[in-house]
Description:
8 helices; globular
Amino acid sequence: MPFTKEQFFNVFAQYNSTVWPAQIVFYLLALVALVLAVKKMKHADGIISAILAFFWVWMGAVYHLTFFTAINKPAYVFGSVFILQGLLFFASGTLRQKLSFRPQLDLYGISGGVFLLYGLVIYPVLGYFLGHVYPQAPTFGVPCPTTIFTFGLLLWTGQKFPKYLLFIPLLWSVIGFSAAFQWDVWEDIMLLVAGLGSTALIVYRDRVQQQPVSSPLTS
């Protein structure tokens, strides 16, 4: 890594101190997305997609390009890719309405709920007990916990959606996971679990949905 552990956590301190109280707004937006997914109000899918789009554009433009580039030049690439992911969420989910959120009490819905809870609540609590104390701690709204949250929402989708929406979050789940070993951010272990597990579940779910249901007349 082209930076030290101290520099890595100082970026979080600078980011958190500068953008405060944006972290509260992010939690409120996340709660809005969860309520809309469960209640299924009018235009809910488009609004949830817009919230996801906002998160990813924010992470790209603010966290990566504004703060992380100070110690890591490849963050210019990360930032651009995150902004692209945000635009993809907005285009596919809000404009083209290709994302439909319908959580169910099944493997996908429960797994999604676990990742959502982890990204919003367990991640910061676990981080605190591991010694990552605010402001030198990754808060919701920075890439790793927010990517876990994203996978949770995608597991709550009720129909097939463009698989290219999975590529960038999956790629980051592998890249970001390295922090668990490089800098002892052990709460990021769930990032890789969410990335690989959610992608496998979604691909399997959509493949099963593609298979025609046999009937006594055709079997």
